[in-house]
# Entry
Amino acid sequence: MRKGIAASKGYAIGKVFLKEQDVIVIAHSNCIDVIEEKKRLKRAVEEARNQLIHLRDKTGESIGKEESVVFESHLILLDDPEFIGAASAAVERDNTSAEAAVKSIVDMYLAIFSDMEDEYIKERAADIKDVGNRLLRNLMGRCSTEFPDLPENTVVVAHDLVPSDTAQLDRRKVIAFLTDIGGRTSHSAIIARMLEIPAVVGLQDITSRVKNGDTVIVDGAEGVVIINPQEDTLKLYEDKRVQLEIENDKLKGLIDKKAVTRAGRNIAVAGNIGSVEDVHKVIENGGEGVGLFRTEFLYMDREELPTEEEQFLAYKYVAEKLEGRPLIIRTLDIGGDKRLPYLPMPEEINPFLGYRAIRLCLDRQDVFKTQLRAILRASVFGKVKIMFPMISALKELIKAKEVLWRCMEELKTEEKPFNEAVETGIMIEVPSAAIMADELAGYVDFFSIGTNDLVQYTLAADRMNEKIAYLYDPMHPAVLRLIKMTIDAAHREGKWCGMCGEMAGDEEAIPTLMEYGLDEFSVSAPYILRVKQKIINS
Ligand code: PEP
Ligand code: MG
# Structure
């Protein structure tokens, strides 16, 4: 049995397809014709551009727009003078082949990025490697490591899966994947969750533990892989898999039902979204609204800040699709592990304690105002609410609301319609905010508890660090006290309190949260029906 990082829930039993690592060996060569080598490089870039456009469109259709944007960033790399331009210059400078020049530039960037802990930078390094390999294959006339016609029930095992691999996977045949490297935020993990197939990542050496045709059990909930299991283990997991399918089918009966407790209290169950398309999944799964729109994803995988008009259209789209159900739009929560290539941010020793979220927005009011204006304009198309992240002191909330009022004044002068009574709330995800919740409650319409951060800050246990995962405990009495204090403080002021951190989907925590009087649970779409069921049965 091997243990890795549980990246996407579910059980799968299938046969291994081992994806060979894409090793490209380049003999060092001094070229004779610099002009010809530069032309070859140009042709390889053009070929790569066509391949990437094709992959982008194919992925957009078969998986979703959100996944296809990684190919956009690959296309941008092809136009980057620091990358392709540098390779072309290296041909001339070193009098070397196009292959050797591309490899030297890729290696240089990988060496620079390799020491950085930042997840975002790691993803960018993976992109450069992916594009570099594509160029090398084109130069050498090799086809990509495409997946052959895979049989049904295939479990793909790879050192890592880059976006162009995942785009090629036949979703009817591939039932799970396993990788040596990667964390919960790696592209492969994100895509597995979108496809709703189980995945375990960060298994370290799974590619050397299995061979083609081995039978494996994948337990995506526990992050466990069992290789060539005994008959009785197979039977056990087959039963679990069937049981889960039956449960999921049964849950569909709750799509149009309300989550009413045995005592007759109606609790709202909403969905968390990261892209406009995600709203469809929330509705299909019976979500009663969106409790958290992580807008930062609108800002990622692009070259510049999204304009007010672009954002307005995105928020309006979601608001309209929700047909009157509430939509809580969280203002930009960038910083920490989420960076934007085009927005300068200082290198920080403790980025999670640094220049992020509302702190950055209050400093960059141009960025903040563009977003607030877009949200306000969208507020006439649905039940839009505004939520500020990472509030740690009352003065931040007051400043944020002042900026919001200024935006309202501007829109009035410009005669652009918006909902003047738009509700505003804050995330309670910093211990100081939970402790001061009684004071803060007077200035908001609602709270939403962000346990992902609240737990890490309360227990001083980094949410991204596997080594101290045992300390990261949402049921720690200190965390529970803060949650209870927050809910009580909201209720004393006649305000409501929800939760949009992962804890809201934790079936063990739900009865306690109900007992504390939590008014709304907001979870990712595949968890909505389970939460409803738990509330109804508790
Ligand atoms: C949280 O911190 O619980 C939360 C919902 O925000 P994020 O996970 O985006 O930091
Ligand atoms: Mg947070």
Notes: The chain is about 45% helix and 15% strand. The first strand starts at residue 2 and ends at 3. The pocket of phosphoenolpyruvate (ligand 1) is lined by residues 292, 294, 333, 429, 450-453, 500-501 (CB under 6 Å).
